[in-house]
Recover the amino acids of this structure.
């Protein structure tokens, strides 16, 4: 990770630490009880009011007594933060509680009645998250977009984030002057494998050249740096990370209007797992009391303000 | 009988329905097949172009290695080092290093096209393997052939060209085909550079539908080209044998 990335990480970490405490209080929905601990995100010791029908002891879990959450490795900002702490996690350790998805996972866990140390993270490569058979996790949170085809193979939670796609380009290249979707059509675009970004390119932008599709984020970013693709289509928060840290001299050209029906991230569960109902209740409560919006404001604060390409 | 036993074991297992739905879904197969077949054309293009260069370079390398005399030691050593190195490094590493590294140097005139670097990497790696196959063929030709050629006044080069190599190459047609088939599969590795070839396309479809049947569609295509090629080679070898025996019988 570059030095710039490290500094950005520490800054975000410090802010998150201070605010994380406040968030914990918001989540519990009770009188503010601020725990005076040094590490960020430590929850107030008072337990959240139970969700109806979702007593912690009655939940359907892969391992009793703990909530096993899966995500991919490396864990990129702004979805995860806090830097590398424990193996095998690269770039960020999900267990720090920092980063948008880590914060959401811990917030949901608290609603379900799990303490901080009862949440265990496990590495699940994206292509494995929908493999048949018993899952190794209770839910997988990894910027996975809901689609009806995908929902035939796994169960999705309700939305925890509504996604906008955007395009990153290098400054000073011809594509950097484009102001509309039609203008993008003659350029070579790229996206990461398995993302709805790729589908957005194929279904909504419809370029004349076949786009490049890369197995990892780092390969796609490299292709942009090397000029092997002219524009990289990624979701808006990731785009800000790419321009801030990964590709010097790049910018977010713009964000795209949502495709018909919109696009949202959901957590992935084993098909038929009753846990999804309880997680949905938890998400409903977090939306109702403003905690989810607050988490979004802290970690995805920068993911606004890009012009909309039509 | 054994196959039936395995078949029964698989279909009676508790997870079979889910696996059948995930790997053998006919609707997903039908939907994804056209795109994967189109992407497969890129694999075909890659291995056809690569194979031409591989056959030529590998022969040159094998001949270099067979040169006798102390003056040619540096060339022989180079050939040995090359063959050892490129057989030792995993193909996917060569592709990753060249495909991501060479364009990053940002030198004038160096192409950045990922398909170009994919073909270059495959040529480098397979030349090493195929040169050893040629070498085996050359060494299997009885030394009396070369001795007879030299005694007739042919130079080493002429002996190779007119006597040894024609026999050597005919002998190693099956192993050459083996490596060609291997090359066809390894074109899938170029997908890691971002080129949308059949395997990459099947991964795209699999992650869009959360179903693994597209992998099966890609596999069907790869097998479909292998079988005719294998039968063609059998025919080629049989025809060659017929000619040899016919000549001997005269």
């Amino acid at each position: 990770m570059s030095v710039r990335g490290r500094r950005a990480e520490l800054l975000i970490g410090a802010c998150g630490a201070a605010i994380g405490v406040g968030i914990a209080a918001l989540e519990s929905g009770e009188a503010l009880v601020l725990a005076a601990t040094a590490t960020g995100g430590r929850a107030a010791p008072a337990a959240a009011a139970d969700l109806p029908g979702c007593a912690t002891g009655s939940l359907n879990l892969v391992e009793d007594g703990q909530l096993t959450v899966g995500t991919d490795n490396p864990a990129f900002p702004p979805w995860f933060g806090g830097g590398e702490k424990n193996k095998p996690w690269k770039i960020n350790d999900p267990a720090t509680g920092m980063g948008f998805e880590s914060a959401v996972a811990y917030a949901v866990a608290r609603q379900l009645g799990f303490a901080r140390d009862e949440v265990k993270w496990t590495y699940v490569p994206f292509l494995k998250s929908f493999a048949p058979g018993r899952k190794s996790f209770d839910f997988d949170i990894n910027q996975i977009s809901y689609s009806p085809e995908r929902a035939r193979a796994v169960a999705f939670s309700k939305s925890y984030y509504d996604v906008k796609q955007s395009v990153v380009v290098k400054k000073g290249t011809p594509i950097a002057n484009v102001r509309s979707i039609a203008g993008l059509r003659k350029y070579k675009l790229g996206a990461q494998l398995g993302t709805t970004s790729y589908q957005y390119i194929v279904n909504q932008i419809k370029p004349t050249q076949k786009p490049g599709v890369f197995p990892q984020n780092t390969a796609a970013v490299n292709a942009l740096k090397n000029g092997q693709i002219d524009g990289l289509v990624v979701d808006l928060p990731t785009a800000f990370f790419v321009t801030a840290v990964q590709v010097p001299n790049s910018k977010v050209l713009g964000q795209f209007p949502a495709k018909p029906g919109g696009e949202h991230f959901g957590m992935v569960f084993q098909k038929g797992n009753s846990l999804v109902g309880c997680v949905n209740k938890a998400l409903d409560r977090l939306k109702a009391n403003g905690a989810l919006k607050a988490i979004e404001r802290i970690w995805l604060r920068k993911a606004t303000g890009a012009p909309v390409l039509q | 009988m054994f196959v039936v036993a395995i078949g029964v074991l698989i279909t009676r297992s508790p997870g079979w329905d889910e696996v059948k739905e995930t790997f053998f879904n006919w609707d997903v197969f039908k939907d994804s097949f056209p795109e994967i077949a189109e992407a497969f054309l890129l694999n075909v293009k890659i291995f056809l172009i690569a194979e031409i260069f591989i056959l030529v370079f590998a022969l040159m390398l094998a001949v270099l290695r067979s040169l006798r005399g102390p003056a040619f030691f540096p060339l022989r050593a180079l050939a040995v080092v090359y063959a050892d190195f490129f057989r030792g490094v995993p193909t996917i590493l060569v592709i990753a290093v060249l495909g991501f590294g060479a364009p990053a140097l940002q030198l004038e005139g160096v192409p950045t096209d990922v398909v170009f670097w994919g073909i270059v990497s495959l040529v480098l790696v397979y030349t090493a393997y195929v040169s050893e196959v040629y070498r085996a063929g050359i060494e299997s030709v009885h030394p009396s052939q070369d001795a007879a050629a030299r005694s007739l006044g042919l130079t080493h080069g002429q002996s190779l060209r007119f006597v040894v190599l024609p026999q050597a190459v005919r002998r190693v047609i099956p192993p050459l085909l083996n490596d060609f088939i291997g090359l066809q599969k390894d074109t899938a590795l170029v997908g890691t550079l971002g080129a949308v070839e059949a395997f990459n396309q099947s991964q795209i479809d699999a992650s869009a539908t959360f179903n693994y049947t597209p992998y099966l569609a890609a596999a069907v295509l790869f097998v479909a080209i292998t079988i005719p090629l294998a039968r063609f080679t059998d025919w080629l070898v049989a025809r060659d044998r017929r000619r040899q025996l016919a000549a001997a019988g005269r």
Remarks:
- Residues 69 and 81 of chain A are 16 Å apart (CA to CA).
- Confidence is low (pLDDT under 50) at residues 1-47 of chain A.
- Chain A has two domains: 3-160+265-299, 164-255.
- Helices of chain A lie at 3-28, 100-112, 181-184, 196-205, 217-226, 236-246, 275-288, 291-299.
